[in-house]
Predict the structure.
Amino acid sequence: MTELELINAAKEAAENAYAPYSHFTVGAALLCKDGKVYTGCNIENASYSPTNCAERTAFFKAVSEGERDFSAIAVVGGKNCNFTDYCSPCGVCRQVMAEFCSESFRVILGKEGKDFRVITLRNLLPDSFSI
Ligand code: THU
């Protein structure tokens, strides 16, 4: 699975985003070490705080299916599926990644066209909390 294939899966997932309040649609595609891909989108709520980010949707789908080993996640986001800029994961999603992934876990940021950036979890969330 190439970076661009994973980004395309994230773009497809963003089509399912439920974002009637922000209109900011996010898609994620989580690659497991066994090669399976779990996608996710953001799901908003009228009460705002129950909103779930695309990255966490993908992680929770995967973990609830018994997956524990992950190698990378692709993320795209933008107003109404216009992915003009990179969309970097929020702090809560970074903490969820830190729960299940090593510091070498790769976060692939996609946007329109074929450009992408790759950041490790080590760089996204240094000195992360754990018990
Ligand atoms: N959002 C995500 O899905 N992932 C992130 O990492 C950042 C924010 C969503 C939450 C909300 O539905 C919308 O983007 C605007 O904040």
Q: What stands out?
A: The first strand starts at residue 24 and ends at 32. The chain is about 30% helix and 25% strand.
